[in-house]
Amino acid sequence: MVAESRHDGSPNIGDFSSHFNHTPVLLDEALNFLTPQRGGHYIDATFGGGGHSRAILEHSSPDGQLLALDADPEAIARAERLAERFPGRLRAAHGNFRDIARLATENHFSRVDGILMDLGLSSYQLDQAERGFSFRYAAPLDMRFDRGHGLSAADIVNNWDETDLARVIFEYGEETRSRPISRAIVAERSRQPIATTDRLASIVERAVGGRRGRAIHPATRTFQALRIAVNDELQALREGLVGAVELLASGGRLVVISFHSLEDRIVKNFFRDEATDCICPPGTPVCVCDHRARLRILTRKVVQSSPAEETLNPRSRSAKLRAAERLP
Ligand SMILES: C[S@@+](CC[C@H](N)C(=O)[O-])C[C@H]1O[C@@H](n2cnc3c(N)ncnc32)[C@H](O)[C@@H]1O
Fold first, then answer.
1. Each residue of 28-52: pLDDT tens digit?
2. pTM for this prediction
3. What is the DSSP string of 106-146?
């Protein structure tokens, strides 16, 4: 996740982007775990605004190599512009990190020294009204990282049955009012299809009885749920983690920054399993899984932003970083 703007003079990539400056979250912490070195090979699986990528390139000067991935073609266009500043050192590939192993092979990255996943969406995406991620703007309900593929949020909201909508809103939004919300969506769409963010936000707001007494906008959780469903984010993360471990060289580092408990739980459980020799169910008399630990966990406790970073960049408040190292 990245901040919308910054004025504190820390590294930014504003001069190669148009008018946004991006603040990478937990940058020092991510670099401390990735330990970029000259000659190393790194993958930034979520290029976004490129703040982490640029720092990795600078710390692995003069010849470290970086492969930048993003599901959003617009992020890849930014990566291609950044590549001009680091001749011969940055390759950019459009794709979902669930395919990280294939994307790496296609770009001649095999034994990788560090992989970063900074999950979720960038402020470029959030701030572009027409992407439909935010109910701050009246915009078409889209929410796809890659607008060239897959179902949009409007497709889901207007076509899924009430039970599936309630399940997604409950599971991915952790929204306890998922049933009245899905009921209201189904009732409203029968009058007229729900095409815009503001209409959906007001349907949700009415369904839960307004904003009073709520710390966050009543539609926040429903929007999170739809974004996760549209981009199949949790399954992509599970598959991306598996692919990432396969790619790491011995001693290579995997660093994941997540922004909500659903993501963090997946990362935590994956690291725990990959750091354990046997993952047979408790009570199994003899190991039948043949599982062997491939990772050593580097973050016994999850790493979170400092009060200073939270002040400068409120979006860092929910960030959780976990890191692990590939065993020989
Ligand atoms: C939080 S931003 C990354 C910000 C970046 N670290 C920076 O410093 O600017 C997350 C980015 O990951 C991308 N993304 C999210 N899920 C993805 C996936 N499964 N595969 C590839 N890219 C993904 C989004 O399109 C977005 O650009």
1. 999 999 999 999 999 999 999 999 9
2. 0.92
3. HTT--SEEEEEEE-S--HHHHH-GGG---TTS--BS---SS
- Contact status, residue 44 vs residue 116, Cβ threshold 8 Å: yes
Ligand 1 atom with minimal separation from the 96 CA: 20
Residue 50 Cα to ligand 1 middle (Å): 9
Using the atom order of ligand 1, give the atom closest to the CA of residue 236.
Answer: 19
pLDDT digit string, tens, across residues 105-157: 999 999 999 999 999 999 889 888 999 999 888 999 999 999 989 999 999 99
Phi-psi region of 136 (alpha: psi -120 to 50; beta: other; left: phi over 0): alpha
DSSP class of residue 67 equals E
Q: Which residues pair with 2 in a beta bridge?
A: 24
Stated as kind and residue range, the H or E segment containing 43 is: strand 41-44
Q: Tell me the C-alpha distance between 235 and 71, whole Å.
A: 14
